[in-house]
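Sharing a chain and its predicted structure for anyone who wants a worked example. Both blocks are below, sequence first, tokens second.
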Amino acid sequence: MKKIQISPDGSSALLGGGVSTHEVVNTLAVKGKVTATTNGGCTSQLGPALGGGFGRYMGFFGLVLDNIIDMTIVLANGTIAHVSSTSNSDLYWGMKGAGHNFGIVTEANFKIYDFPTPRWFYAELTFTGPQLETLFQHINGMNQTKELGSVYTVFAINPQYSATDLCWYPEEARSSFDYFNDLHPVAVRKWESLSPTEIQPAASQDIGSGVCAHGQTWRLFPLGLKKYNVNANRQVYDLFRQLVAKHPNFNRTVGQFENYALQGVRAVDPASTAYANRDDDILVSFSPVYPPSTANDAIAAEYGNKARAIWHAGDTRGRNVTAYLNYANGDESLEAVYGYESWRLKRLRALKKRYDPENKFRFYNPIQ
């Protein structure tokens, strides 16, 4: 389950079902290779891939799931299935976007690539609350080329501050950094030249960082957007401050605002995988973090659903609620997670009936 085997021609790698993103990034880097991964080092490579997989290389390679060549799966009846575009192709389609419903992946082949660039520029800029509107107006106005890997903004304690993380190619860095630095952040940390293996530690997203810590409940209430409504973001920011002031044990809670280059995502036919929400431009999530308890669960749900309602009310008129599967809290509609086109759920339900008729794989957002 921990194997990482690069093919002789260097175009693919066989990854065990239990291998972490950290292990994938660091092992491939030794060979000058990279694949689409999520940002956090402690997540597995395969887990997020089954529901999408967002990360800094999306502009080039698409979602993590777009890079799966084939998989070996243990089905609900105990048999083993090999799935690809030419073998069990119906299940291959369903695994790429709803995979946790159908089986346990023991290994998968992924496309791998030469480094698009051997070095990255990374910066973290900290802003005060009064700068919120100007910051998000700036993000709305930026030109996110595929070389501009990600702009990740977060509300965090101290609640009067928010931080924006910027990750670019070095040649794109100066003008993009200046674009945000002109807003006069109260603090700046930056690294002019990082290798692919150094980005996760710099961003505090590696194994051993706070986002990988145990002992806390971390829930997410996600929503896909087309554009930021700065008034809605102000309301959510105020809601965040209310939460941490009234409930101090929620002081690790964050509001997340994720912008990624999407050229690679949009290059894939939306009908070719079960992942339904390729039209979303932005991913936001209100993310309560707290000591585990039933009472705290109720508080988290109250504030998380309020935040999501505020964001949706401020989104482009007429858009449906969409929820990124890997963040989904469990109270979203199946359409929000798996798509509003009627043929999608019809096809997924048929696959569920065929491959898991007793609904053994029902732990997380099960298809019903």
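Comments welcome. The longest helix spans residues 294-313.
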